[in-house]
User: Which sequence fits this backbone?
């Protein structure tokens, strides 16, 4: 069962609608006990980094997340802000993230319109079971003012160009995260969710 | 490369999409849920849903219809109409939208823009504006004035000043809706769209008046918009309709790139599969 983490600043319902459309067994999880019953996890998001982290702490979800993802190694998918808070630090609100992936989250420069909103091309930089369906040029839907900058190039799974290239899919071990909204990227995004549901990370 | 977007606009009354001219004389088109499913299958880039009588009737948005539409739409979905508070925004997001459009309520209480951006991120807040050409005069240096409540109420606000203020308060996108062109199928008001695009650094969406592919292309090039709201051309009973695929092919022929059409195998047209 896929647990979709439901917190105040998130858009868990959008992800839930997408998983339902794909006939994938899932449940919204809003508390630590529920979260521990899921054998894979999706952390969606539309919010600001600080509001998202605050909501996760308020709902007492952070310890359970650490336990299930880092110790039990259940497959984990972060989406949008659910990607950004996995890093060590974010320029948005100058907050520390969960620190699961080394690196930082930076704002796009003022030379481009911010936020980036729309369909942009995602180019995988290495093979990964979850991103296999994204054959360049694969257009996915982005809504972001900030982007991640992984410290280790091996954690970059795909890149996208907005003024300059940025990491649009990051991952390591049992963790994968998309900056674009997979649940809102039409058939290509739904395909990624389906692949995630069948992914058995080797770690 | 970031592509331009085609956004289908639903003016919803009692769960059904309607089509107006200059914000009046709405005629019935189809149930919102049915039209949403059809347009998603046709590969529209985005859908915006306005509960157009909520604000004037001082009632809450029709969340049941929002939920039913959200269940069929796996592309971005913006919802507006009758949003008055953070709790209203929260309910709309929980119903399956990921962006919230604020319009008349934001004019009455601009702090709602900032509160929404702080709670949900600025990319979540779309500032929709109804603008009308009134001529340059004191207080309206651009010659375009902001109206509210279905274009019925003048505000005395200059359109360019208002969008700049909206951006600084935290809006993530701005819709420029020309009252003069609404439902007229005579093309977007390119002058005000371009003026807004030059005034702000957030994405700008042209709205009101697209009747042909040329109109849409003009809004996305000369108008400087990142996205085009269309409705009449897709489903107005008052004129000949075009499908999303035809519109996208027409835009491509005019050098305007949008998300490519996916074929039956799920590959992007022109992609290397």
Assistant:
């Amino acid at each position: 069962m896929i647990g979709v983490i439901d917190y105040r600043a998130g858009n868990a319902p959008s992800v839930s609608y997408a998983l339902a459309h794909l006939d994938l067994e899932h449940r919204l999880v809003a508390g630590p006990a529920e979260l521990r019953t899921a054998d894979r996890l999706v952390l969606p998001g539309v919010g600001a980094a600080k509001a998202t982290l605050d909501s996760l702490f308020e709902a007492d979800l952070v310890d359970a997340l650490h336990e299930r993802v880092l110790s039990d190694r259940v497959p984990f998918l972060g989406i949008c802000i659910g990607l950004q808070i996995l890093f060590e630090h974010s320029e948005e609100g100058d907050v520390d993230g969960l620190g699961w992936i080394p690196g930082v989250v930076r704002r796009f420069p003022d030379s481009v319109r911010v936020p980036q909103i729309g369909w942009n091309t995602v180019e995988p930089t290495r093979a990964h079971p979850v991103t296999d369906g994204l054959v360049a040029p694969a257009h996915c839907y982005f809504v972001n003012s900030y982007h991640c900058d992984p410290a280790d190039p091996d954690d970059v799974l795909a890149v996208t160009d907005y003024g300059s290239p940025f990491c649009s899919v990051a991952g390591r071990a049992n963790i994968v995260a998309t900056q674009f909204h997979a649940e809102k990227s039409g058939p290509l995004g739904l395909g990624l969710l389906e692949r995630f549901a069948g992914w058995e990370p080797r770690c | 490369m970031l592509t331009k977007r085609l956004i289908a606009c639903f003016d919803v009354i009692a769960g059904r999409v309607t089509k107006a001219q200059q914000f009046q004389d709405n005629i019935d088109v189809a149930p919102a849920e049915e039209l949403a499913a059809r347009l998603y299958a046709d590969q529209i880039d985005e859908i915006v849903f306005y509960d157009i009588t909520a604000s004037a009737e001082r009632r809450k948005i029709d969340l049941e219809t929002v939920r039913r539409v959200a269940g069929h739409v796996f592309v971005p979905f913006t919802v507006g109409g009758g949003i008055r508070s953070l709790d209203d925004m929260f309910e709309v997001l929980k119903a399956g939208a990921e962006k919230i459009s604020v319009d008349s309520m934001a004019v009455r209480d601009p702090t709602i823009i900032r509160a929404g951006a702080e709670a949900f991120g600025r990319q979540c807040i779309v500032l929709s504006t109804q603008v009308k050409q009134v001529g340059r005069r004191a207080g309206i240096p651009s010659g375009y004035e902001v109206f509210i409540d279905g274009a019925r109420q003048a505000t005395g606000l200059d359109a360019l000043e208002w969008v700049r203020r909206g951006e600084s308060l935290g809006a993530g996108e701005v819709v420029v809706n020309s009252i003069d062109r609404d439902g007229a199928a005579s093309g977007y008001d390119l002058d005000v769209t371009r003026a807004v695009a030059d005034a702000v650094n957030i994405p700008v969406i042209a709205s009101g008046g697209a009747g042909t592919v040329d109109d849409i292309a003009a809004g996305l090039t000369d108008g400087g918009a990142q996205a085009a709201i269309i409705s009449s051309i897709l489903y107005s009973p008052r004129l000949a309709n075009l499908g999303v695929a035809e519109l996208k092919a027409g835009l491509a022929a005019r050098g305007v790139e949008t998300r490519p059409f996916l074929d039956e195998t799920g590959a992007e047209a022109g992609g290397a599969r």
